[in-house]
Amino acid sequence: MGDDRKFAYPAIVVLTGASGSGKTSLVGKLNELAIPGVEGINCDRVKIDLSDTAGPSDRQAGVLSYWITKFDQDKSNVRLAVLDTQIRPHIAIEVLGQAGVENSQIVLVDCDPVLRNERLHKERQQPELASAQMDCWAAYLRGQADALSLSIIETGKASLDESVKTLAAIVNNLLQRARAF
């Protein structure tokens, strides 16, 4: 996609956060709301061949680029995509800018490390992800969100329904901005 071309669909919300923070639960509940033109996608659950990419940052950019291209080619009724990722915010900003996506927002989904690790052990049955490395990743993402003044949804301080209301408000606000274009 060239820099002079606008994205075919008006808006993308990129959710980022460590494993166990609640991104997938939020996207699932958002999809249950059936907001017309809004689709939430768990990007990690779709296998994409990114064998040409070198490191984690390249893979993160590749996954986001894949979804932007897919929506551009798909021409479906999706007017706003909510993408569940673990992308570094600065990489998301770069990829969205290069693709010409003018209406986007990056949102951190976060919670207390004890709760996140409990979710990984109990609900997700993935204790291998409850690690010091994941705790560092979560802290890094929180620092980036704070530095970039990103919206943050604290899933440990609110119920799932309240957290989904927060996400739905972000989505509706972005839809309103997109209609202005």
How would you characterize this protein structure?
With 181 residues, the protein is α/β, with parallel strands linked by helices. It has one domain (11-179): Rossmann fold, CATH 3.40.50. It is built from six helices and five strands. The chain has helices at 23-33, 56-74, 89-99, 113-121, 132-147, 160-179; strands at 11-16, 38-42, 80-84, 104-110, 151-154. The protein has a five-stranded parallel beta sheet, sandwiched between helices. Helix 1 packs across helix 6. Mean pLDDT is 86; it is low at 1-7.
Break the fold down into its secondary structure elements and pairings.
Elements: E1 11-16, H1 23-33, E2 38-42, H2 56-74, E3 80-84, H3 89-99, E4 104-110, H4 113-121, H5 132-147, E5 151-154, H6 160-179
Parallel strand pairs: 1-3, 1-4, 2-3, 4-5
